Amino acid sequence: MIFNSSTSIDAESLSAADGLLVLITRALDKLKPGEILEILSDNPSLEHDLPAWARLMAHQWLGTTAKDGRRSHRIGKGSALRMLVDRQPDWGQHASIKDGRFETRDWLLGHAAEIRERAQPSDGFAPRGAEVEKGGPDFSFDVLDRNQAWSESAAEFYEQATAGQWDGSRDIPWAALRPLDEELERAVCQLMTFLAENEYSALYVPAKWIARIHPHFAETVLFLSTQVRDEARHIEVFVKRALANGGGLQFSSASTQASLKSLLDQEDFIQASFLLSVLGEGTFLDLLRFVEAHAPEPVTREIARRTRIDETRHVHFALDHIRHALRGDGTLKPKLRQAITDRASVLSGLKGLNPLVEESLVILAAGGLSPGRLPAGMKARSQLYETMNENRIRRLVSIGFPDSEAQEMSELHTPNFM
Amino acid sequence: MSNVTKVGVVAYDPKVVTIWEGIKDYFTANHVAMDFVLFSNYDAQVDALLDGWIGIAWNTNLAYVKVHRRTEGKCGVLAMRDTDVGFTSKIIARAGSGIESIRDLKGKRFALGSRDSGQAAILPEYFLKKSGIDPAKDITTIRFDLDVGKHGDTGTSEVEVLNAVTKGDVHAGAIGDQYWARALAENLVDSSKVRAIWTSPGYCHCNFTVRAKEDEPRFARWTDTLLKMDYNNPSDRKILDMEGLKRWIRPQMDGYRVLFEAVDDLQFFD
After folding, report:
1. Residue A17 and residue B181: Cβ atoms within 8 Å?
2. Is the ipTM of this complex over 0.85?
3. What values do phi and psi take at B143, rounded to 5?
4. I need a labelling partner for A104 at 20 to 30 A (CA). Which of A67, A132, A249, A413 fits?
5. Which of B177, B234, B235 sits opposite A55 (nearest CB)?
């Protein structure tokens, strides 16, 4: 090995035990194997400390000489790589910061902007763009394809989601609750119970997929984590409303549970996202609008309004994600259709929507059990079901299904809404 | 079984199994049949080598000297670690003890590692004698006899020597440079209390010993395969890091001379 003199550092009287080795290591990092680092020092112990350390680190110890009343120690950089990587990390990135904001979509810089067609399992939890040392374990993430897991707009939806967070304890006007007619309160409590159980599935399904999507597709993972957070808050406020005004949590039906379990059992990310967010949460938008419109008091109204805004974001994210995936994969469309058919056959032996929920929708819209108002409640519920169906068809058409196919698919959707 | 090269290794720590399972996997991947045999101490391993139970012994320097004596110098050496060359012992002293050189040790309390540790007992004692300090008369020696019989380059007794100097139980002590360098890098040294004041001449540490020089060609394939382990290969790197080297090298025997002298001078095996 040929050693060339290159760099010198002044270590003053710093001891090897007190950080000098860090100083030397960082100085050596900037050199090529074979280049020499000179350490000027006033500390007499270094001539004992540095040769031992250099040997341990496989650098070449070149000795100590006197220089201007001080000691000059010389180390030749060894050839062992500190990190086994294929290329050096990025340096010199400057993100665009506008009006004091660093938007997530603007973080596509340098190596971090390289979105692979297929993620490397061994990149593990390294943030995209970091240089990953070889020899790490293979992680068991199984959503590895860009077409499945990434879309340009995910960063934008994530940005909207973080800006739209609210506080279920503070932002709902809880103090405005007043005692309601008992049957009306019972209907509200049953609907809140139903909404909460559905939102559990909307929390667990993305949570399951977060654990399976490779972190290379960070924008999607970050967005889904906001979805999980949103659903946690929705569960919180629905349960709180059921408990807040003299009622309590009501019935959870076997058919609802079966319908929700079939979402959690999905083993394909795009299909799960399609069933949950496009069809399920999409249908829920109409349900929440109905609850908001017929809410008997401001608390239920505000809960429905706020949760609907969040759910709208989830639906739009999923629509965008699926449109993106459909563009890249010609075989996907029949698979999505099949997913609806398969789910319908799994659920075929079950009863429809929990009748207690169906009745509660009528009672909510009628404002109670007054015979004079029940017909209007019945009509409102029928209108709701029609609206749900129309909007489902509209969404299916918007992602590219022909009208007739969209109609068939909408009809196969679970009567449980979610 | 006759084609399987059996390598003796001393189990001074549970990680020895992990290291040698890794080395065995490496050899298997390279189509060389080898297995390792664990010993609880170097004396048993040396006996097993001489009795032909094992073909190769991964020996510490003292165990090598023992084989060398018992074979009357006929034993052979296949390879060693890059870190086995230029090993030194350090004398570390308590700040404020007035010890700046070996001469200043007279009349002081001095800590040594296990009696079978080349770097923390045998060689330091020998070098002290050569520098005019008789360990039996001129200083009060405190010994930390830990892991006796298994002392490799990672002796736990050296930890005790550093602790004793730091606490002021002794004025100075001897340790190997490898532990000293690790202690410096890992912030285990209080520089206001302890510093190195002397470094020994370099010597060699561990090696792969075989019974006879004539056996060396018989193990040539094994040795060549070992030497091909590559620090730039992730799976090799894990093993090499655990075993404390960057690459395996051909033997450099000059570094054992001082050890023979020390063992003779101290009549260590007598």
Report:
1. no
2. yes
3. -105, 140
4. A132
5. B177
